[in-house]
């Protein structure tokens, strides 16, 4: 047997006949040898946005058919939840999580042969609900100018940067086996830094976040490659292909948008290997919320989006060597949904024995235009919900008086916000105690007392005046 006959690739098997000949045929795919590179961030106290990069052919060892995201709370390691994602997706948002909770997460890729080995868990803590408004936002306007061996990083201060002590900058090579991450701390007045001694043509991830003595802020994230070393005479296919044409977007649901396009119109351009889709909310200045998707076809379903939010999208053609410029942007809005959170800061105040003042703020995540608020109240917290008294108010209202209540009674209140899709969750129950009916005077009684006292004082003043006038006449 010849040596070259024994060195088959992992995806090829050989069948030897009785006459010593060899027939090659494709074998089944093998499982991936490594997990996808993982990135995590939270855009609200109740979600985690999971992002990863597609595996190279050497690591996937076959066609990826799907991904699986495993996650669990740190204190409930035995309760592992999983979400399966299509092969053309590279991110997913986990919603309905607990604020201020440490979670363990990992992503596993699958071929037809099965899932690859599970990687080590990555830890991520969701923001605390009560301190969410005080957390430093990600620096805005993150820009990175890539050179062959360096990255020139610039950014603008965080919107709430007055309490910032400084900035931390991290840089790591995404597809490298080494897990070392370069980090540097900078003064709050520094908004530019050059990362040097990098390898040409490699994929890097750069993170910039504000920090103080008490907490770290959200990170602005950039991913891209350093420039390749210039070639003496690049082949024609090395030139980037032009962008796709006829970009079209249509809303599919409250969390997804269909995006379709046509092949580049320019003739004689390099063959397109795949497409990269850029998606972000319209007017966004925070680079950490810009999402990138990969597609080998001329359409993609952009998922894990926010309800009732307007997005702008652009598409890039990628050849064998490098990607071309992005197309012009198109805009589309996701459909509205039920509110994800109840009305905030519900307050109760007893005005008298029969009236309670109720005030609140709109939901943190309305998922559309609030068209109605619904207040439920009862003198028994254990009573079935359909037996509670109900009060409906217009969506622009933020306070109301609930009247015709009983005196010296404890009432329980809860409320929900509604969009055109339906009602969101109810707020936690709050209670208020109305005073006894005899402890306050009604308006007619108070008016009568004041009128009587006023008439009495007027009579006394008139009598004194007449008495003084009579003395002067004498």
UniProtKB/TrEMBL annotation:
Highest taxon in the source lineage: Eukaryota
Keywords: Cell membrane, Disulfide bond, Immunoglobulin domain, Membrane, Repeat, Signal, Transmembrane, Transmembrane helix
GO cellular component: plasma membrane
Record's subcellular location: Cell membrane
Alphabetical list of SUPFAM superfamilies matching this protein: Fibronectin type III
Domain Fibronectin type-III: 34-129, 138-230, 243-337, 342-437
Pfam families found in the cross-reference section: fn3
Membrane topology, record value: Single-pass type I membrane protein
Transmembrane intervals: 449-468
Keyword Signal: yes
Record's protein name: Fibronectin type-III domain-containing protein
């Amino acid at each position: 047997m010849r040596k070259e006959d024994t060195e088959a690739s992992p995806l090829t098997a050989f069948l030897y006949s009785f006459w010593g000949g060899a027939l090659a045929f494709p074998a089944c795919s093998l499982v991936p040898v490594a997990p996808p590179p993982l990135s995590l961030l939270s855009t609200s106290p109740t979600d985690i946005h999971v992002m990863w990069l597609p595996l190279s052919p050497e690591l996937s060892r076959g066609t990826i058919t799907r991904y699986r995201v495993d996650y669990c709370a740190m204190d409930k390691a035995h309760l592992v939840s999983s979400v399966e994602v299509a092969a053309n997706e590279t991110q997913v948002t986990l919603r309905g999580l607990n604020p201020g909770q440490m979670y363990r997460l990992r992503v596993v890729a699958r071929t037809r042969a099965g899932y690859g080995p599970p990687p080590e868990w990555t830890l991520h803590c969701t923001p605390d609900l009560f301190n969410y408004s005080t957390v430093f936002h990600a620096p805005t306007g993150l820009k990175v100018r890539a050179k062959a061996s360096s990255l020139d990083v610039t950014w603008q201060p965080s919107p709430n940067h007055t309490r910032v002590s400084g900035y931390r900058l991290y840089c790591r090579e995404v597809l490298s086996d080494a897990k070392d991450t370069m980090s540097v701390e900078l003064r709050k007045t520094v908004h530019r830094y050059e990362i040097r001694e990098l390898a040409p043509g490699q994929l890097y991830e750069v993170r910039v976040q504000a920090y103080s003595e008490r907490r770290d802020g959200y990170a602005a994230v950039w991913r891209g490659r350093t420039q390749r070393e210039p070639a003496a005479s690049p082949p024609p296919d090395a030139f980037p292909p032009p962008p796709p044409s006829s970009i079209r977007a249509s809303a599919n649901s409250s969390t997804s948008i269909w995006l379709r396009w046509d092949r580049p119109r320019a003739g004689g351009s390099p063959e397109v290997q795949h497409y990269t889709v850029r998606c972000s909310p319209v007017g966004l200045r925070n680079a950490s919320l810009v999402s990138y998707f990969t597609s080998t076809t001329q359409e993609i379903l952009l998922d894990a989006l926010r309800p009732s939010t307007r997005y702008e999208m652009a598409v890039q053609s990628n050849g064998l060597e490098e990607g071309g410029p992005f197309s012009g942007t198109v805009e589309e809005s996701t459909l509205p949904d039920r509110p994800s959170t109840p009305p905030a800061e519900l307050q109760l105040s007893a005005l008298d024995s029969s009236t309670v003042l109720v005030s609140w703020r709109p939901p943190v995540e309305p998922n559309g235009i609030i068209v109605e608020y619904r207040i439920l109240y009862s003198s028994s917290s254990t009573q079935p919900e359909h037996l509670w008294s109900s009060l409906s108010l217009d969506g622009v209202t933020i306070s109301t008086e609930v009247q015709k209540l009983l005196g010296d009674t404890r009432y329980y209140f809860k409320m929900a916000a509604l969009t055109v899709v339906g009602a969101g969750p109810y707020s936690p129950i709050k209670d208020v105690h109305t005073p006894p009916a005899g402890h306050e005077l009604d308006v007619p009684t108070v008016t009568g007392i004041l009128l009587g006292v006023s008439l009495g004082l007027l009579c006394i003043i008139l009598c004194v005046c007449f008495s003084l006038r009579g003395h002067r006449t004498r």
